[in-house]
């Protein structure tokens, strides 16, 4: 008989009968993960396809070609929709379940794709972009939570990271679609309209999949929840999971109050969890992923390659590298741990951003008569290092941690709020980077991003706990101990006052 102690508990557990759980050990769980992950595919495709489509939109609508404001609005309106969708997505998840949230997101996304494909003027196109953004925002909240709640804790990180793989895969797919439709009449309409196809596929498949077993147990039907859990866990683990859910449900009943957004900030343990989760989402964007991706064509031109086709090819290579790095992250996140992976990732990000900054500073200080190709190659190395370090760590870790660290009654709400923070940060970076680069120089801007990455490193060290292998109940105990101290009794007092 093998005995291990439970983290955060004085009890012990016989694990001699427990099967070894691996990423591929349960095809049913893997199927749930990939169907839910189609939401991530939509997320990645929508953010990537517009860069190619906009070239042809400008050709068809002269007013767009003549107005930078219209171009920015067409691009950013999806981000605005995503912020709204993410904010509403938390409430939809908690009130109606993860499955219905996914289905509603698919319907909105399909509608938005059709509106964009049929748009007769830029303003209808902007409406379509808003609609697909709403769908993406809801999906960005729902997919990680659904996957996390249907995953054994031993492989939860890898399975949730699969959603990030689908995001990066969607970006790669968008570049392929951009290439495929370049010579077809109505180019941009096909580019934007075809996004409705995976949404329709997900809708059809999701009809045959179950609701999240944790949501079912806590909110609706215990028998149905147990039936779903029986397909995920072996009999020994099934009993353990049901016991943990029963305990969590009893704690929810003792609270005897509806959860509100103000509670996230009033209750110290929830506030600490949200601060860690939202901070990770903020630093993911402010560490510069979108700006580095944006500058990839410029970096190639600095290296001496002026061809637009080569720049497009680089975009494909960068997107493929991003996806491959995410695959590495899927393996490492459950073996190496979330916190260690984030810190290693940020260390590489800092070094690569310094490479990029040095390359741009040297290039700007060099006379036009001097060949600056060598500096360009420094920048290319910086770009390659950045993607190689960012993709396995700071790509999946924020989404994984946010799917794990909140108690059941707050998971949808806090997940939605945290995803909204991510989209707001994304919009701020997208709207401010070029202005900042014009004001202080591109090299100095990358140095600022490196400084932010250093701040992110310190933030992870101080505020983010390791969640590898922990159950949701064990994670909740960690936040109570951080808030009130181990054995202080203040957590019990807080519950009594609630």
UniProtKB/TrEMBL annotation:
Q: Where in the cell is it found?
A: Membrane
Q: Name one Pfam family in it.
A: Sugar_tr
A GO molecular function term, named singly, is: transmembrane transporter activity
Principal localization reads membrane
Name of the protein in its database record: Inositol transporter 1
Q: Which NCBIfam families match?
A: SP
Query: Which family does the entry's similarity section mention?
Result: Belongs to the major facilitator superfamily. Phosphate:H(+) symporter (TC 2.A.1.9) family. Belongs to the major facilitator superfamily. Sugar transporter (TC 2.A.1.1) family.
Query: Which GO biological process entries does UniProt record here?
Result: myo-inositol transport; polyol transmembrane transport
> Transmembrane residues, as ranges?
28-57, 69-91, 103-120, 126-147, 159-181, 187-209, 310-334, 341-362, 374-391, 446-465
What domain of life?
Eukaryota
Q: Where is the Major facilitator superfamily (MFS) profile domain?
A: 32-468
Entry membrane topology: Multi-pass membrane protein
């Amino acid at each position: 008989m093998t005995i291990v102690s439970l983290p955060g508990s004085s009890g012990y557990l016989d694990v001699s009968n427990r099967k070894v759980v691996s990423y591929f050990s349960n095809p049913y769980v893997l199927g749930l993960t990939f169907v839910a992950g189609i939401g991530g595919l939509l997320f990645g495709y929508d953010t990537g396809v517009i860069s190619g489509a906009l070239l042809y939109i400008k050709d068809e609508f002269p007013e767009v070609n003549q107005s930078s404001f219209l171009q920015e609005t067409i691009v950013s309106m999806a981000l605005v929709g995503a912020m709204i969708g993410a904010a509403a997505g938390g409430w939809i998840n908690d009130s109606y379940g993860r499955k219905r949230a996914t289905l509603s997101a698919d319907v909105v996304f399909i509608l938005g794709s059709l509106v964009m494909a049929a748009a007769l003027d830029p303003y209808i196109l902007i409406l379509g972009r808003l609609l697909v953004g709403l769908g993406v925002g809801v999906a960005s909240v729902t997919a990680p939570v659904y996957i996390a709640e249907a995953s054994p804790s031993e492989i939860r990180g890898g399975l949730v990271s699969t959603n990030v793989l689908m995001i990066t895969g969607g970006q790669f797919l968008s570049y392929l679609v951009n290439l495929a439709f370049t010579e077809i009449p109505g180019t941009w309409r096909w580019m934007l309209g075809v996004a409705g196809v995976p949404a329709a596929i997900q809708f059809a498949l999701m009809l045959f999949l179950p609701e999240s077993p944790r949501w079912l147990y806590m909110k609706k039907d215990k028998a149905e929840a147990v039936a779903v859990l029986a397909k995920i866990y072996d009999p020994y683990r099934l009993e353990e999971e049901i016991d943990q859910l029963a305990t969590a449900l009893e704690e929810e009943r003792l609270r005897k109050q509806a959860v509100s957004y103000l509670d996230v900030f009033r209750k110290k343990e929830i506030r600490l969890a949200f601060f860690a989760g939202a901070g990770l989402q903020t630093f993911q964007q402010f560490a510069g992923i979108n700006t580095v991706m944006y500058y990839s064509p410029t970096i190639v031109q600095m290296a001496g390659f002026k061809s637009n086709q080569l720049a497009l090819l680089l975009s494909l290579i960068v997107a493929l590298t991003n996806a491959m790095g995410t695959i590495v992250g899927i393996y490492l996140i459950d073996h190496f741990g979330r916190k260690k992976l984030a810190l290693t990732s940020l260390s590489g990000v800092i070094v690569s951003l310094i490479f990029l900054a040095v390359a741009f500073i040297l290039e700007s200080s060099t006379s036009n008569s001097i060949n600056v190709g060598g500096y360009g190659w420094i920048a290319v190395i910086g770009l390659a290092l950045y993607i190689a370090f960012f993709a396995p760590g700071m790509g999946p870790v924020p989404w994984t941690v946010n799917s794990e660290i909140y108690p059941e009654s707050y998971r949808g709400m806090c997940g939605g709020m945290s995803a909204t923070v991510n989209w707001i940060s994304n919009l701020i970076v997208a709207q401010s980077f070029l202005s900042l680069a014009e004001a202080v120089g591109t090299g100095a801007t990358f140095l600022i991003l490196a400084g932010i990455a250093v701040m992110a490193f310190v933030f992870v060290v101080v505020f983010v706990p390791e969640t590898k292998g922990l159950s949701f109940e064990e994670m909740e105990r960690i936040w109570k101990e951080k808030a009130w101290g181990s054995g202080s009794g203040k957590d019990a007092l807080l519950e009594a006052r609630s």
